[in-house]
Amino acid sequence: MNTAHHMLVYGCEEPGSTKAVWNCGEMSKGSSAESHSPCSGSSQILYAWARDAPRLELPDGVGFKVGRETPIKYIVLQVHYAHIDMFKDGNTDDSGVYIDYTLRPLNKLAGVLLLGTGGVIPPKSVEHMETACEISENKTIHPIAYRTHTHSLGKVVSGYRVRTDDRGFHQWTLLGKRDPLTPQMFYSIENSDPIVNGDYLAARCTMISHRNRSTYVGSTNEDEMCNFYLMYYVENDEPLNMKYCFSQGPPNYYWSNPDVGLHNIPNIQASIL
Length: 273
What we know:
Layout: E1 6-15, E2 39-50, E3 62-63, E4 74-80, E5 108-117, E6 120-121, E7 125-134, E8 142-150, E9 154-164, E10 170-178, E11 187-188, E12 200-209, E13 215-216, E14 226-235, E15 244-247
């Protein structure tokens, strides 16, 4: 983590550039160098690493489907550096990710759904950044692991499956909850019960700011992010078409908004470890 702040592995329909290495443009806002996104066309995040996290082992028989006849025709590694001082004298870096692959088709295909928000954190405040999306596809997904990510203001990130019971009440089942400043690896899911059509997935980041300024969502260390990654698999099916679940975040979006329609919100449990 003293070299590469964090790394993301994208599955791309087309890469953002035909070059072997290119500038993604997120950190070097003042740079005049040509920059491109990690992907051109459809994209999804397959894996993320930060803060000296150990390797990820998928369950037996589970893998990501990649190749010519799939939406993932290219794999792109994005490396973020907190600073570049170590490279100014000509030193280079070999940070990366080892990927195991098989040519044998698997009947348990993995996917990652990224829940996140936009928004702003006011100065000297405690703020909840929240998002929720309904599973509207006729698929059964089996959660495997979760990962949390914020920058320096995040204290707790929690993710839930929300299901409506026979009486019309919302039942909140914890998928994972973590201090995002611990190693940002994929951790084993808290509850592996299947998630089905009609369920909601919801995430909350509890942020505490002692700054004298507002903090906006963005990619640099001066900004903030609120991310909850859910890794899952489907059996004898294709992963969800939905890859991202994002809200506007504060001050416009909260779970308690009437138009969001969530009830029985576990306000205390979702905000403390």
